[in-house]
Each structure stands twice: as C-alpha cells, then as structure tokens.
C-alpha cells in the first residue's frame, strides 16, 4: 500500500484532534434582517447532512439565560421539516432581541436602580448543560462582539455577519443590506411623483446608525438631490441652497435622503431614547431637516421615516443566496476545526476571519469611494 506523505499524516493528526461535534445551536441576536431564516435553514440542513443535531436558542441568548420562561427550556429542535419553506420569509423563527447584553446585563434592584452584571459564563455553562458542542452566532457588530467574548471564555463559536447597516468590517457586504437598499430605493421612486405633484421638499429618513451605506446607495440609485451621511457633517444652508437652485432651474421639488446618524456641523446626533441595557435609539433627523428646510426656503417640506419597513419582508435574490452561502460556510468551518471566526464574503469565495478582527472597527463609507465620486459627478449635494 502507498505510504502517507508527511503532510497527509499531519492533516490526519489534526483531524483526529478536532473536538467531535454531536449537537450545535443557532443564535440570532440584535435587530432582525431579511435573510436570517435562510441562514437558519442552510445551517440546519448542512449540519444534519453531517449527522449533527441542531437546536435554536430563543430570543438571542434569553433561551439559555431564562429557560424557565420558554417551552423546551428555551431551545427549539430544528429539523428538515421545521426549516422547510422558510428561505423567503423575513424575520427569524427563533426570535431575537437587542436588549440584555449578557456581558453587561442590567439587573433591577429593590430600590429601582439597575446593577450591571456579566452573565456570559452562565451561557457557557448552559451550553455544556444542554450538551451543545458549538454555537453558530448570527448578528451584527454587537452580537459578534458578544460571540467573541464567549469564545474567549471557552465556547466553540462561529459568527455569521448580519446587519442591514453593512457596517461590519472584513466582509464585502452583510446579508440584509441589499434588501434594505432595494426597498428604500423603491420608496424614493414612489415619493418622486408625489413630491413633484405638490412641489414639495420630501426628506426621507433611513436606517444605518453611524454608517451611511443605506442612505448613499439608495440615494444615488433613487436619484436623490441631497444625501446626508454620518460621515459628512452637513451645513443645512448648503442643502437649502441646493433646493433653491432646483426651483430656479424649474425643478420645483427636491428629494433629500437623511441617514438616521447624520448630524449638522457642530451639532448633535438626533437621539430618540436611551435605555439601560441597549444601544441609544437614533431617529428624528428627517423631521428636523424638513422643518429647517421649510423655514429657510419657504417651500413646503414633509418627512418620511422608513424605519422598520427596511428590516421586514422577503430577502432579495442576492441576500437569499448570500445567507445560504454563509450558513453552509459556517458548518464547513466547524467541520474543518475552526473556532472564534466569522465567515466573510471575499468574492468569489467565503473566507474565515477572527471574530476579534472582524469587530474591532466599524466599516463606514469611504469618502473617496467610486460611489461617492459618482454621486458628486451627478450633482448630488452632501451638505458640505
């Protein structure tokens, strides 16, 4: 018989040392995004094909932290039958939450105040108790930062990047983003007709938090006249002059796209609320800009907040395929012995990136990108 080469023997030894997987869990955290169910389906089928059992954790990590509040101790058995026909569905069959970060969990005290505690080790212990060998964590920067902390505490974990904001570094794009941009662009198309009919300025507020990817891509695609990004503090007078110029040219309406994280020069973010245990809630910039433009120009202005409409509905073809690719790649990563990594799109392949590296910085819009240069060539105003 042929002898094994040294490299083949080494690969065999590494494979033998890999922890055997019998049962894995899937977790979805943070805001929902189109494509979550497609990832769940892909992970489940790919894992079952390898003979692994799959369960889903309810509502982020709440199913493990508060199992008494749920049926089946906070875990949902995932089978071929339970994930059939869910690829095209929005939301997540597991539920999700952007409250109660287990690393900084708010616990209500008798005096009405909150004490912040670290409950991450409870999650690690709960996984061992439920014989969970590894977790597929699907989420954005916050959820994947939690995943990295759990990995450092001994939990075997693979991350899948999810956010409509597209602000995760180390991946070309996140699933959910294309669907959000497509919907926002459709809304801009519809608003053009009513803005022109009434000769109004219409300000459209879109999500994105501290990154302007949705605003930029939808604004350019939807032929907006001005786009306000978190990356470029704006001068409202510059935006007002853009709308006046259009009136002088006989174009008696304007469309302004404002990212929720946009802010004026020397101004503050528009924050709706701050609650214990969750990130600040941005919003209100659309209304503020519309009021200021009406005062400055004398032209009637209205604002529209797309809000959670961008999160819901069926994922686009691009997001479905990307979600399915990410889910299958996460299972391959586990099979190959990977741990503490995030799957990332690096066309034409999906690669593995350490979670620590993937979450160390926010990916914001490069001001010298081709899309930005295209927008300026088209005469779009950014308020600078």
Q: What would the keywords be for this entry?
A:
384 residues, alpha/beta, Rossmann fold, 2 domains, 7-stranded mixed beta sheet, disordered N terminus
Structure description:
The protein is α/β, with parallel strands linked by helices and 384 residues long. It has two domains: 19-175 and 315-358, Rossmann fold (3-Layer(aba) Sandwich); 180-310, Rossmann fold (3-Layer(aba) Sandwich). It has helices at 6-17, 36-49, 62-65, 120-129, 141-152, 177-198, 213-221, 236-248, 285-297, 317-335, 355-358, 370-377, and strands spanning 23-28, 53-57, 75-78, 105-108, 114-117, 134-139, 157-161, 201-206, 226-228, 254-259, 271-273, 281-282, 301-305, 341-346, 349-354. It has a seven-stranded mixed sheet, sandwiched between helices. Strands 9-10-8-13 form a four-stranded parallel sheet, with helices on both faces. A two-stranded antiparallel sheet has the order 4-5. α5 links the parallel β6 and β7. The relative contact order is 0.16. Residues 1-6 have low confidence and may be disordered.
How far apart are the first and last residues' alpha carbons, in Å?
73 Å
CATH class of the largest domain: Alpha Beta
The helix content, as a percent range, equals 25-40%
What is the fold named in CATH at topology level of the largest domain? Rossmann fold
What amount of the residues lies in strands?
15-25%
User: What CATH architecture of the largest domain do you see?
Assistant: 3-Layer(aba) Sandwich
Low-confidence stretches: 1-6
DSSP summary, beta strand count: 15
Number of helices in the DSSP assignment: 12
Rg result: 23 Å
Largest sheet: 7 strands, mixed
Return the domain count: 2
Sum up the overall morphology in one term. Answer: elongated
Strand order of the largest sheet: 3-2-1-6-7-14-15
Order of helices and strands: HEHEHEEEHEHEHEHEHEEEHEHEEHH
- The quaternary state of the protein chains shown equals single chain
